[in-house]
């Protein structure tokens, strides 16, 4: 069952999704899927290529930006570019959703788009603690 957690009007994050969850994503109006999970992280996890094909079959744009541990500057910038170019709401996922929201939030903080306090609040409202990962 899908656990899409709204962060902003443009971004929701989720723990691992399956192909069938993409039907719900499309029905909810998401236009782009960001997969922040590296392939083969755990047995039984759908591959990025499987998820890409399933997303495209439903008319969804798909981007794979795998993050291991903390995001790199390139990964943060990659997510920022996808968000800027998205033609509607974005759903980002990883194993728990944490890497997805952290990668996005770091980009927002670095760019000055949002203040740290707002990002911490948005994270908390979505069920994630960003207080220890964002610059003070």
UniProtKB/TrEMBL annotation:
Region Disordered, residue ranges: 1-21, 35-55
Domain of life assignment: Bacteria
Molecular function terms, GO-annotated: hydrolase activity
Signal sequence range: none
A Pfam match: BLH_phosphatase
The Beta-lactamase hydrolase-like protein phosphatase-like domain, residue ranges: 3-110
NCBIfam families referenced in this protein's UniProt entry, alphabetically: TIGR01244 family sulfur transferase (TIGR01244)
Name by which UniProt lists this protein: TIGR01244 family phosphatase
Phylogenetic lineage: Bacteria, Pseudomonadati, Pseudomonadota, Alphaproteobacteria, Caulobacterales
């Amino acid at each position: 069952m899908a656990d899409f957690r709204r962060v902003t009007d443009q971004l929701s994050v989720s723990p691992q999704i399956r192909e069938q969850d993409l039907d719900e994503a499309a029905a909810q109006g998401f236009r782009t899927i960001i997969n922040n999970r590296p392939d083969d992280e755990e047995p039984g996890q759908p591959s990025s290529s499987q998820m890409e094909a399933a997303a495209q079959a439903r008319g969804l744009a798909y981007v794979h930006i795998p993050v291991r541990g903390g995001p790199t500057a390139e990964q943060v910038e990659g997510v920022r570019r996808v968000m800027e170019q998205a033609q509607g709401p974005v759903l980002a996922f990883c194993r728990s959703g944490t890497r997805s929201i952290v990668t996005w939030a770091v980009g927002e903080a670095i760019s000055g788009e949002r203040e740290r306090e707002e990002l911490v609040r948005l994270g908390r409202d979505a069920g994630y603690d960003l207080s220890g990962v964002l610059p003070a």
